[in-house]
Design brief:
The complex is a heterodimer of chains A (468) and B (192).
Chain A (H helix, E strand, L loop, with lengths): L7 H7 L2 E3 L7 E4 L2 E4 L5 H10 L9 E4 L8 H5 L7 H17 L2 E3 L9 H8 L7 E4 L13 E4 L2 H10 L1 E4 L3 E8 L8 H12 L7 E6 L1 H4 L3 H9 L8 E3 L4 H7 L8 H12 L11 E6 L6 E3 L7 E3 L11 H10 L14 E4 L7 H11 L9 E4 L4 H9 L2 H8 L2 E2 L20 E4 L14 E4 L2 H10 L10
Parallel strand pairs in A: 3-4, 3-6, 4-5, 6-7, 9-10, 9-12, 10-11, 15-16, 15-18, 16-17, 18-19
Antiparallel strand pairs in A: 1-2, 2-8, 13-14
Chain B lengths: L7 E9 L6 H4 L19 H4 L22 E4 L11 H9 L3 E4 L4 H8 L4 E4 L2 H9 L4 E5 L4 E3 L5 E3 L4 H9 L3 H6 L2 H10 L1
Parallel strand pairs in B: 1-2, 2-3, 3-4
Antiparallel strand pairs in B: 1-5, 5-6, 6-7
The chains are: A alpha/beta (468), B alpha/beta (192).
Amino acid sequence: MAGAPQTLFDKVWRAHEVRPESADSPAVLYIDLHLIHEVTSPQAFTVLRERGLSVRRPERTLATMDHSTPTLTAQVFGGAPIALEAARRQVRELEANCAEFGVELLGLTHSERGIVHIIGPELGLTQPGKTIVCGDSHTSTHGAVGALAFGIGTTEVGHVLATQCLLQRKPRTLAVNLSGELRAGVTAKDLILAIIGRLGVSGGTGHVIEYRGDTIRALDMDERMTVCNMSIEAGARAGMIAPDETTYRYLEGRPRAPRGEAWERALEAWRALPTDALARFDREVELDAAAVEPMITYGTNPGMVIPIGGAIPQRCGDAAFSQALAYMGLAPGEPIRDRPVNVVFLGSCTNARLSDLRSAARLLRGRRIAPGLRMLVVPGSQQVKRQAEAEGLDRVFLEAGAEWRESGCSMCLGMNGDVVGRGEYAVSTSNRNFEGRQGSGARTLLASPLTAAACAVRGRVTDPRELM
Amino acid sequence: MPIEPFTILTSRTVVLPGANIDTDQIIPARFLTTTTRAGLGEHLFADWRYLPDGTPRSDFVLNRPEAHGCRILVAGGNFGCGSSREHAPWALADYGFRAVISTELADIFRSNCLKNGLLPVIVDEPTSAWLIEHPGAQVTLDVLAGTLTLPRGAAVPFALEAFARHCLLRGLDELDYLLERRNEIEAFERRA
């Protein structure tokens, strides 16, 4: 389209306007790919049934199960029933809904099952320029390929099932410009935690973030997904990264990516997506990535984050801050380093891709986790699990004393029985350190896979660079 | 889903002053194993409302006698952040709330509220500060006028976009609006 220079977001948005927004009504936005799972879809199917509606475009809809599913092999592949009755019911209901409405399901024992935000890119379904939604706030992950991807509520899941469209007000744009090379021991997780620390947990509200700059260009796709995944933790609607050769290399040949002539046509369209040179963002923020240290959270939201060598800040007169520290059992001014750790969780849609497992395994190889510490390693998908096993990473984790599980969301939100005990400290590679997120009374410290592995070895909060 | 129309609501307020109250607090994940919308009110703020053995905590605001019957929740900034779970507004509505007032609401939560006849009200800092300092104040929310009226009669305007106001006032379901756009959607699909 000729005219004013546009951002990546503007281009994707405009290409999906069935009807643009006006003063009186929001835009009708077309959705290319709808991912559904067992926890936020049952009530949407109920509405379809009550109203006699069908799924408008089943071929644009893909279902899997991840949130409440067990990760113990016997419960997934037989030999033992799913321990939680409610989870068993959700799994059965999703199976029945998909069968009734003709939606493809990568079910519990399917070889391509996994966390919904891991399998979309892995299958090559997540593509540049697409609009992608799912009843899950970490749908922002898919923005790493240059898609506009965001989380929706269950009523909206119903809207998309019935009409393939959503009513949306156009968000504003926020450029996060990153320059400099990440230092050794500093990962994409540390980078996004530093960004959230800077923006604050509501700094991105009402905005779609585009992550830009040479730091981003140098990241591989797994790392870009880690960054985009946590956009919602800054309050943003979505996070996006312009597609480039790294993106195309990642997607080419994936089972559901275009092939042959269709691939060539897609490439041509994708190359036109990056933000135009003179395009304007509503806001811009700069960050020196070379100055980022390994980061760790100390409080009860992801914005409460410090460099691992730092001290817990002081905020006099802030009752919510004091309440957070009381919950965490931490005091202002004290260092976070060397705090005892009870549990380490390596998993989640933020950090359970193959490169995350490799990074933790590199540090754990030939070492044992600290006595009394429990470490759970939960690959992001069954495919990640098989690849990791082919490389012998499962042996590294098992020999170190960790548990090696089937894929799923697991201890990130503790819906499937994998929980952290009351009062225990868990260093977790997931995305939320909210009160009770990993179990009632559980205390979560968010960090990178590398830092998590170092903490597992020492049984204390440890800078991974000390063990590298 | 038919929604009860929302025109005017007068109620006393319940105040939860802390900022950044996330949807995991509003409804912890272990209650998301339900496959219906009903009955989530009893689990609203479960980890703050009940002791581990299930007995109510007398120091939590919803357990105080004066909170009974209040239909307006006044909350700190960025209320409803985190997970997209619509179970959060379902739980609030099932408990009996019909409006949430804050200086800022998280995007997905705000959108989910509107789908369930729960009025999201964004006010400025001074208004929020006054409401937080006066728990139990009787206030009136007028959707048509877009005003919040404080006990002494001062009417504070709040922003509500035209479409949301229209749907709230008539109890309209957005799905009907989308279904009526069928021809436009088909035309788009042919173009694309």
